């Protein structure tokens, strides 16, 4: 009995590894198996296509172009946040707010602004002398450069979060030493601050690059009809046609998998020894300069362009009977919002979205807790611990469209036929949330330390009682914040949902896409605003539960 009890934790850890391994890896393995069937017919069908080379170039161009925009803007905004006057420090939150707006809502907002003929800003630009001879334009948002620009705006908030954290870790004594030696403000920034930000810039840049490679919403809504395909939209076409070609879809997604692995390895090589960049000292970072109105202007301008403009367009279109290039306040109506809450298809999609998100969070939290506990204290199970660490990190590097295709394949045939049910949506949501559930709870456990646990065990409490009566109550703010933030991310979710949904199991993002495809633009705008309000409520709950630095904990 003693021997069995001694091996029970290892057996439990192994069962947990097998469970999450099947959840995460089985859909990917199933896809690749089909791609290699019949002498790798899937790869032949994908890469013998004469358009594949252009698709690869567009995918790389979208990722690299949006990365360049995000790095420049994100770094500037992070610097600007350190130069704000004390009474305007609240503006530091402004560059984060675009995360609140679901990508599908932001993209539709931009389309309402810059569609060649009815776009509001295009119509305004055509009143200027330079373009008053045009019947449409001058901007065409359905082109690759504008898709890159919009994607770059969307990724800027993520880079800003990383670089802002990097600024906070810089020792002010190094800045002061450079200033004492006569270096100018620009010299300090480029010779001292920027090199010290290198690890943050590399890590944040590679995260943004991975997100850029997996972009789906912008290319699908803005580029697909004009033949601007990237790998993610090609995968969507392969699994949405009849009959579904899973082998070709898997082959198309393979470069995304390989590039994700290459980026992670390259990141480790570039950073090398992290201790070379440790700069903590007795003083926290200070900008070393006077408050700058250039910084204030830059942050406000970014907020106006990246947040206020697309949201404003959504509001105007949602209040209009139809979308045209003219804004007529006298014709504003709430009929579109009434339809949102009266049409059964839309209300069912909202209920499905909320229900599946809540259920997925309820499942992901305990899975993340077990994974975090293994990563923190599972030194006895080195192989299992390393495997768990790898598996829970996979959904961060693999685009959601790949998981969507894999889940559609895995759960639409024996032994688990779940297509058309909420269950398959919940499963893919839980998979996508595993890294967030694990990372945030692991951060809370590290901050908690071992003192309370050791005191409980010394007092005679067992592991289960210590966890339920000591650890979980102390982690309550972290768990609440993780739950709220995952709820936000899931109500945003569009890519994987579009692949695994059925006509009877829609969520907010997929029903919005259907109305967009049908040309019901005022209703699209109303649904997009409802999505934004739901996610905004989730963000406020997350900040209330876990603090205003909730996003930095990711």
UniProtKB/TrEMBL annotation:
<dbReference type="GO" id="GO:0005886">
    <property type="term" value="C:plasma membrane"/>
</dbReference>
<keyword id="KW-0813">Transport</keyword>
<feature type="transmembrane region" description="Helical">
    <location>
        <begin position="141"/>
        <end position="163"/>
    </location>
</feature>
<feature type="transmembrane region" description="Helical">
    <location>
        <begin position="249"/>
        <end position="271"/>
    </location>
</feature>
<comment type="similarity">
    <text>Belongs to the binding-protein-dependent transport system permease family.</text>
</comment>
<feature type="transmembrane region" description="Helical">
    <location>
        <begin position="93"/>
        <end position="113"/>
    </location>
</feature>
<keyword id="KW-1133">Transmembrane helix</keyword>
<feature type="transmembrane region" description="Helical">
    <location>
        <begin position="12"/>
        <end position="36"/>
    </location>
</feature>
<protein>
    <submittedName>
        <fullName>Iron ABC transporter permease</fullName>
    </submittedName>
</protein>
<keyword id="KW-0812">Transmembrane</keyword>
<keyword id="KW-1003">Cell membrane</keyword>
<dbReference type="InterPro" id="IPR000515">
    <property type="entry name" value="MetI-like"/>
</dbReference>
<feature type="transmembrane region" description="Helical">
    <location>
        <begin position="520"/>
        <end position="546"/>
    </location>
</feature>
<dbReference type="GO" id="GO:0055085">
    <property type="term" value="P:transmembrane transport"/>
</dbReference>
<dbReference type="Pfam" id="PF00528">
    <property type="entry name" value="BPD_transp_1"/>
</dbReference>
<keyword id="KW-0472">Membrane</keyword>
<feature type="transmembrane region" description="Helical">
    <location>
        <begin position="357"/>
        <end position="376"/>
    </location>
</feature>
<keyword id="KW-0997">Cell inner membrane</keyword>
<feature type="transmembrane region" description="Helical">
    <location>
        <begin position="201"/>
        <end position="222"/>
    </location>
</feature>
<feature type="domain" description="ABC transmembrane type-1">
    <location>
        <begin position="350"/>
        <end position="542"/>
    </location>
</feature>
<feature type="transmembrane region" description="Helical">
    <location>
        <begin position="292"/>
        <end position="323"/>
    </location>
</feature>
<feature type="transmembrane region" description="Helical">
    <location>
        <begin position="56"/>
        <end position="81"/>
    </location>
</feature>
<feature type="domain" description="ABC transmembrane type-1">
    <location>
        <begin position="56"/>
        <end position="267"/>
    </location>
</feature>
<feature type="transmembrane region" description="Helical">
    <location>
        <begin position="479"/>
        <end position="500"/>
    </location>
</feature>
<feature type="transmembrane region" description="Helical">
    <location>
        <begin position="416"/>
        <end position="437"/>
    </location>
</feature>
<dbReference type="InterPro" id="IPR035906">
    <property type="entry name" value="MetI-like_sf"/>
</dbReference>
<feature type="transmembrane region" description="Helical">
    <location>
        <begin position="388"/>
        <end position="410"/>
    </location>
</feature>
């Amino acid at each position: 009995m003693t021997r069995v009890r001694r091996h029970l934790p290892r057996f439990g850890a192994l069962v947990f590894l097998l469970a999450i391994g099947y959840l995460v890896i089985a859909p990917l393995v199933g896809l690749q198996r089909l791609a290699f069937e019949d002498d790798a017919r899937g790869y032949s069908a994908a890469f013998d296509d004469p358009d594949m080379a252009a698709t690869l170039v567009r995918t790389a161009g979208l990722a690299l172009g949006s990365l360049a925009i995000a790095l420049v803007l994100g770094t500037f905004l992070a610097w600007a946040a350190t130069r704000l006057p004390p009474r305007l420090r609240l503006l530091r939150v402004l560059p984060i707010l675009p995360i609140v707006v679901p990508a599908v809502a932001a993209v539709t907002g931009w389309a309402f602004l810059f569609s060649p003929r009815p776009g509001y800003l295009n119509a305004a630009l055509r009143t200027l002398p330079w373009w008053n001879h045009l019947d449409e334009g001058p901007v065409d948002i359905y082109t690759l450069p504008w898709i890159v620009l919009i994607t770059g705006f969307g990724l800027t908030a993520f880079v800003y979060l990383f670089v802002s954290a990097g600024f906070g870790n810089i020792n002010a004594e190094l800045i002061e030493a450079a200033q004492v030696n006569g270096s100018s403000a620009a010299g300090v920034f480029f010779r001292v601050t920027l090199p010290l930000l290198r690890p943050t810039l590399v890590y944040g840049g590679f995260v943004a690059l991975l997100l850029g490679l997996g972009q789906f919403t912008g290319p699908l809504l803005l580029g697909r009809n004009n033949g601007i395909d990237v790998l993610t939209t090609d995968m969507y076409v392969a699994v949405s046609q009849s009959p579904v070609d899973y082998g070709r879809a898997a082959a198309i997604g393979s470069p995304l998998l390989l590039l994700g692995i290459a980026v992670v390895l390259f990141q480790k090589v570039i950073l090398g020894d992290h201790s070379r960049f440790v700069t903590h000292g007795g003083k926290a970072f200070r900008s070393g300069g006077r408050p700058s109105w250039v910084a204030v202007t830059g942050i406000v301008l970014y907020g106006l362009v990246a947040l206020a403009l697309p949201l404003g367009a959504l509001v105007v279109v949602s209040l209009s009977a139809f979308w045209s290039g003219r804004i007529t306040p006298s014709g504003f109506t709430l009929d579109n919002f009434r339809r949102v809450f009266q049409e059964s298809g839309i209300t069912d999609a909202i209920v499905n979205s909320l229900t599946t998100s809540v259920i997925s969070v309820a499942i992901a939290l305990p899975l993340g807790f077990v994974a975090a506990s293994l990563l923190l204290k599972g030194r006895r199970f080195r192989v299992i611990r390393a495997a768990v660490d790898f598996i829970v990190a996979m959904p961060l590097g693999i685009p959601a469209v790949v998981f969507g295709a894999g889940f559609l394949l895995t759960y639409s045939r024996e032994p688990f036929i779940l297509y058309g049910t909420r269950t398959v949506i919940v499963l893919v949501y839980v998979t996508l949330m595993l890294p967030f559930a694990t990372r945030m709870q692991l951060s809370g456990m590290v901050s908690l330390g071992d003192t309370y646990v050791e005191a409980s065990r010394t007092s005679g409490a067992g592991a289960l009682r210590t966890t339920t009566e000591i650890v979980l109550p102390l982690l309550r703010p972290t768990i609440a914040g993780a739950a709220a933030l995952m709820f936000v991310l899931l109500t945003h979710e569009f890519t994987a949902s579009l692949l695994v949904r059925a006509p009877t199991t829609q969520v907010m993002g997929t029903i919005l896409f259907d109305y967009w495809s049908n040309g019901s633009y005022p209703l699209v705008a109303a649904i997009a605003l409802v999505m934004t309000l739901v996610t905004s409520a989730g963000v406020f709950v997350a900040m209330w539960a876990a603090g205003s630095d909730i996003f930095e904990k990711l």
